[in-house]
Design brief:
Layout: H1 2-33, H2 37-48, E1 54-61, E2 64-71, H3 75-81, H4 86-92, E3 97-100, E4 116-124, E5 126-135, H5 141-200, H6 202-205, H7 207-243
Antiparallel strand pairs: 1-2, 1-5, 3-4, 4-5
C-alpha cells in the first residue's frame, strides 16, 4: 500500500506535466494561425483550467488590466479586483510571481481561494497583459518554464496582431487621404474659377459685387483646407502611434 501511494505521488505531477505539454502545444498551434487575440486568450483558459484550478487572462488597456476570460472562478469578482491583485500588480511590472495562500494579502478574486497563484506577464517589448493560474498543487519548475514560454509566444503574437492592425489602419487612412485629395481638387478648383471669372468681369459687376463673390468663395476654400488639415492630423497621429507606440 505504501508503495502504491508513493507511486501515485510520483505519477500525478508527471501526468499534470504531460497534460500541460499537450495543452501548450495545442495553444501554440492556435497562436500561429489565429488572427484574433481574444480567441487565443480564451483558449488558454479553456485548455488549462482542466490542469489547474482556475485560469484568468487579461490584457492591458491604458494603464489598467481588462479581464478577457475566466475559467474556474467568478468573472465578476475578477473584473473588479484584477487591478488590486498583489500577484497581478507585480506581474504588470514585468516579473513572474509565485505566491502561496499564506503570502497573499488579498483573497477577493475568488470565494474559494486556491493554495497557490502564479502570475506571468505577457511581455514582448512591453506588457500586453497578465495570465493568472490558480492551483491547489504547487507549481514546479518544469510547469513554470512551459507557462513562461507559452506566455512569451502569446505576447509576441499580440505584438504582431497590433502591428498588422496598425498597418491596416495606415492603409485605410492613406486611401481616405487619396479620396479626400481627389475631391478637394474639385472643391478648390470651382471657387477659384468663380473668383477668376468675377475679376475678369470687374467692369460689368463692380467692385462691391466682386468682393462679395471673393469673400463667399474664399470661405469655401478655407472650409476645404480645414477638412484637409483634419485628415492630415489623423494621418500624423496614426504615424506617431505606429512609430512610437506607448
Amino acid at each position: 500500500t505504501k508503495k502504491t501511494v508513493a507511486s501515485l505521488i510520483d505519477i500525478t505531477p508527471m501526468k499534470r506535466l504531460n497534460n500541460l505539454l499537450k495543452a501548450t502545444s495545442e495553444i501554440n498551434e492556435l497562436v500561429a494561425r489565429e488572427n484574433t487575440p481574444e480567441k487565443v486568450l480564451k483558449a488558454v483558459c479553456d485548455k488549462l483550467t482542466s490542469i489547474f484550478g482556475a485560469v484568468v487572462t487579461s490584457v492591458m488597456e491604458g494603464e489598467k488590466l481588462r479581464v478577457v476570460k475566466v475559467r474556474g472562478t467568478e468573472f465578476d469578482l475578477l473584473e473588479e479586483t484584477i487591478n488590486e491583485c498583489p500577484a497581478s500588480l507585480k506581474a504588470v511590472e514585468g516579473r513572474k510571481v509565485k505566491m502561496s495562500l499564506e503570502e497573499l494579502t488579498c483573497n477577493k478574486c475568488t470565494s474559494k481561494p486556491h493554495k497557490y497563484v502564479l502570475a506571468i506577464p505577457l511581455l514582448h517589448e512591453k506588457i500586453h497583459g497578465v495570465v493568472l493560474f490558480h492551483s491547489d498543487s504547487e507549481f514546479n519548475n518544469e510547469e513554470v518554464a512551459l507557462l513562461e514560454k507559452l506566455s512569451e509566444n502569446i505576447a509576441f503574437a499580440l505584438s504582431s496582431y497590433k502591428i498588422r492592425q496598425d498597418r491596416k489602419r495606415a492603409i485605410e487612412q492613406l486611401t481616405a487621404n487619396l479620396i479626400a485629395f481627389d475631391r478637394s481638387a474639385d472643391r478648390l478648383r470651382n471657387p477659384l474659377a468663380a473668383i477668376i471669372g468675377a475679376i475678369e468681369l470687374k467692369e460689368e459687376l463692380g467692385s462691391e459685387k466682386i468682393m462679395e463673390i471673393v469673400d463667399e468663395q474664399a470661405k469655401k476654400i478655407l472650409e476645404e483646407l480645414n477638412r484637409l488639415r483634419k485628415e492630415e492630423l489623423n494621418t500624423f497621429r496614426l504615424t506617431e502611434e505606429i512609430i512610437n507606440p506607448m
